[in-house]
Amino acid sequence: MHGHGGGSAPSGRPGQFGRPRGRISGGDPVAQRAENAEAPRIPNLLGRIAALFEPHRTALTITIVLVIISAALSVVPPLLVQRAFDEGLFPPGGEPNLPRLATLVGLMIAIYLGSQLLGVWQTWLTATVGNTVMGALRVRLFTHLQAMELSFFTRTKTGIIQSRLQNDVGGVASVLTNTISSLLGNAVTVLAAFVAMLLLDWKLTIVALILMPILVIAQRRVGQVRARIAAKTQESLSDMTAITQETLSVSGILLSKSFTRQQTEIGRYSDENDNQVRLQVSQQMSGQWFFAMVSIFLSSIPAIVYLVASLLMSNGSADITAGTIVAFTTVQSRLLFPLLGLMRVALDLQTSSALFARIFQYLDLVPAIQDSPAALAVPESGPATGRVEFDDVTFAYPDAAGESRPTLDAVSFTIEPGQFAAFVGPSGAGKTTVSYLIPRFYEATEGRVLFGGIDVRDLAQQSLVSHIGIVSQETYLFHATIAENLRYAKPDATADELEAAARSASIHDTIASFPAGYDTVVGERGYRLSGGEKQRIAIARVLLKNPEVLILDEATSALDAISERVVQAALDTASRGRTTIAIAHRLSTIVAADVIFVVDGGRIVESGTHSDLLAANGVYARLYSEQVTGPGPVLDPPRLLSE
């Protein structure tokens, strides 16, 4: 195989949907709130979110009940600890009451066991529901994107689309497992703990509540510092990932080796790696002294409670016992993290809504090109089968400036079944646009495009495209075997059919020379093949489809002279017996066309055979002369023909 070929993919404009977004409970809260504020406004958002979870209503109800029960049970053991101390270890009689203590210990163990079993059940339910909804939503969004018109993808970055499918949809599972569970669980835990503390001793509760806000504020301050460092760490990781993707892709490696810039790339990666190491150390060390103080403070609260309790007991408070003190400090120690979770829940709910809003924004996009309710299938046979007509067609791209001239302006032509028609002209004249309008990848602004005598707007697009084969300059092959790439056109194709198509495309002998034959993996974008080999595989793929109309969009313009001749021979074979439309840059490839349309400034300015157009001594003759002899005066037609 030949280690060349390929090319860069076209870069899309940023589009109106912004950069990739979306996370749950992570990063800098200030940045997260700003990001949430940029989310689109979707009518009836809560209702639409609820509709997604409606099929799982029973599981959700059970989950909510489990969360409430688990949270409530979490504060029962401390109350049993009080009884264990006061009635089992240190009863009024002085001697430990072992039967009573055993009963209380057994009850505590049973509650711990029950809580864990309920927790496992709850986790399974939330994971199942959250991921099921996430999976269904991802497929729904992917399906919807498949129906979007071509212009949507030319104006929207691929990374943004991927972010919708991965980051935003992936956050849906977190809504259930994190946000809802956190809201319910923390709320019930805080409420139950507060009630338990009051039941144990209201005076100690006042002491604990006075100290708790100080601890919460301290924890929040430390959390904000760490979040800012974490955000910088993530940005650094993203930069390292970008460097890796840019430089370790096939195109990136070829570029760096071609310009001997490997050391430069190593330096870039090393610098960012040093930054990452520094940030990781800072993240781990951030607030360590502060955390030490917080830890001291947290450990001091029970001691302060002991001190206050002793003062109260010395002043005659008979209701405070050793069991009360131990139980109270146990409950109080479990109150901190639920309180911090509740303080975060408002941001989590806002973030969850923002995720759903961005997903629904895409789901609400209406494809610009859709089948009409009475769309017809393309007739399988008839006198007009394979005929392509443009009837006074005007077209301007959707994102073109209003005052700019249309890409195509009142274009009319007819290509009869079986004809070989070519479109030539200067760059930007509108040639490729013609090839986009025939399969209805774009909609004509004015006029009609007819296929087989029927307006393409009256045809089902899937049926229309199934009768059209396209071979473009930018050949796309999957990172798969040659056979799998060929079967993309016909999944049930037999080995004999693959070989027949490959022979017609003059590529079978080359494939057979590979050690793995048709099971050869072509590499990313087909980089293990030469440009000519990739192009001939693309032709074989189209031949498997066996379309009535074949569109060749500058299919040989990126090839060298030898590869061009081989591919051109394959194209000549592919075009036999079918309507062929060639968008040509090299005029030498279309001199035998039945009709040549010369496009300039969005209009057809000339049409005819090669000989007719040379004789007319117009735009075509000038273009041909420039390609044959270079810029200069147009040669007379007889001399050109003799060449």
TrEMBL record:
Protein localization: Cell inner membrane
Spans through the membrane: 59-81, 101-124, 191-218, 289-308
Keywords: ATP-binding, Cell inner membrane, Cell membrane, Membrane, Nucleotide-binding, Transmembrane, Transmembrane helix, Transport
GO MF annotation list: ABC-type oligopeptide transporter activity; ATP binding; ATP hydrolysis activity
GO terms of biological process kind: oligopeptide export from mitochondrion
Chain residue ranges for the region called Disordered: 1-36
Membrane topology: Multi-pass membrane protein
Pfam families: ABC_membrane, ABC_tran
Skewed-composition ranges (Low complexity): 10-19
Residue ranges of every copy of the ABC transporter domain listed in the record: 388-626
Occurrences of domain ABC transmembrane type-1 (ranges): 62-351
Keyword Transmembrane: yes
InterPro entries in alphabetical order: AAA+_ATPase, ABC1_TM_dom, ABC1_TM_sf, ABC_transporter-like_ATP-bd, ABC_transporter-like_CS, P-loop_NTPase, Type_1_exporter
Family: Belongs to the ABC transporter superfamily. Siderophore-Fe(3+) uptake transporter (SIUT) (TC 3.A.1.21) family.
Protein name: ABC transporter ATP-binding protein/permease
Organism: Cryobacterium zhongshanensis
